[in-house]
Amino acid sequence: MNSEEIVKELYFKAIKSSGAGGQHVNKTSSKIELTFDLNTSNALSDIEKQLLSQKLSSRLTKENILILACDESRSQHRNKEVAIKRFLELLKTNLIRPKKRRPTKPSKSSVRKNTEKKKRASLKKTLRKKPKLD
C-alpha cells in the first residue's frame, strides 16, 4: 500500500459544519467530507481491494465508496489533515490479515493431571455422602 498514491486518489468536499462557532459557522465551510472509490483505485492491488471490501462492508456505499467526515476543528485545513490521517489508519488496520489459527492438542501430562484432579474432586464428593446401611 502506497500512502502517497492513495492520498492523490482521495476526493474532498467542504461542507458547512454544525455546532458551536457563532456567526463564523454560518459563513465558512469547515467540515470536510472525504470520499474514496475502492473499485477505481490504482494504488491498491486486487487482493487488497477485496480484503477492504469485506472488512469495511458496513462503511461502504453500494458503489464501494468509502465516505469519512471530519468537523472537529474550525479550520478546513486541519479537518482535511485529520480526515486523511483517520483514513490511512483505517486502511492500515483493515489490511492486516489475521494469523491462521493452528489447532493444538493438550499435552499428555496436562490430560493426565486433569483426570487426576477430576478423580480427586469426585472422591471428595462421594465421601461427603451419608453411608448406606445395607
TrEMBL record:
Enzyme Commission number, as recorded: 3.1.1.29
PANTHER family: PEPTIDYL-TRNA HYDROLASE ARFB
Biased composition (Basic residues): 115-134
Enzyme class: hydrolase
Originating gene: arfB
InterPro entries: Pep_chain_release_fac_I, Pep_chain_release_fac_I_sf
Keyword Repressor carried by entry: no
GO biological process: rescue of stalled ribosome
Keywords: Hydrolase
Family label: Belongs to the prokaryotic/mitochondrial release factor family.
Keyword Ribonucleoprotein appears in the UniProt entry: no
Name of the protein in question: Aminoacyl-tRNA hydrolase
Entries under Pfam families matching the protein: RF-1
Region (Disordered): 95-134
A GO MF term: peptidyl-tRNA hydrolase activity
Domain Prokaryotic-type class I peptide chain release factors, residue spans: 8-124
